[in-house]
What we know:
The protein is of the alpha/beta class. It has helices at 46-53, 76-86, 102-112, 119-128, 144-156, 174-190, 202-205, and strands at residues 2-13, 20-31, 35-39, 61-66, 69-70, 87-91, 162-166, 194-199, 210-215, 218-224, 230-231. The protein has a single domain (33-59, 73-225), classed as P-loop containing nucleotide triphosphate hydrolases (Rossmann fold, 3-Layer(aba) Sandwich), CATH 3.40.50.300.
Amino acid sequence: MSILESKDLCKTYGSGDNTVKALDHVSINIEDGEFVSIVGTSGSGKSTLLNMLGGLDRPDCGTVNIAGKQIFTMSDENLTIFRRRNIGFVFQNYNLVPVLNVYENIVLPIELDGSEVDKKYIDTIIKTLGLQQKLTAMPNMLSGGQQQRVAVARALAYKPAIILADEPTGNLDSHTGMDVISLLKVTSREFNQTIVMITHNEEIALMADRIIRIEDGKVSGTEEAGDGHVKE
C-alpha cells in the first residue's frame, strides 16, 4: 500500500537567464514500510525533492500525498502540526539543541506538541540505539556517530509513519556511517517505519530496498537495491 506519493512536482528558482529547474514534474510512489534511497549528484534536485516530500517547502506545481492526505492543501499551521506528528527528520548536521541533554533532545518533538511521553517506547528506542549511558550528556560531549544516533532517536520518538533522512552519514566516517544505516534498517523493521534517504554514496544507497535516481530535476530511473537493473 502506498504511503507517500508525489505527482508532477515542480520547483523553479531564480528568473530569466538564472532560472534553475530544481524539480521538473517529478512523480514517485513509496510503499508502506519500504526503505528507499534517492540518489543524485550535487544540484540534481534530490534535497529539494526531500523538502517537498516532508512539507518543508511548497512546490510551484504538483501534489504530495501522505497516508491519503494532500499535504499542500493544508494551512502552514496545520501542515506544521501534521509534519510533527507524521514525519521524522534526520539531518546531516544532526540539528540537536545544544542546551538540552540527550534525553531532552529525544523527547523534544513530543513536548512541543504538548503530548505525553510514552516512556516504555522511548526506552525501547534508547536501548535499540545504544544510548542508555548517554542520556544526561550534552550534545557537545558526543561523537558524530553518537549525535546522529540521538537524531535518529528523536526522529522516531513521535512514532511517525515516515522517516526522511538527508545525507545522514555525510559527516561520519565510513564505518560509523554503515552503523547508522544498519540501525535505521533495524528501527524501520522494529517500529514499522517507512524510510526515504537522500545520499550520494552508492554503497550506502545499496543498503535500501530500492533506489530512485534523480538527474537534472527529473527521475532518471529506479532499481531494486543491489541488482543494478534500472527501470524507466
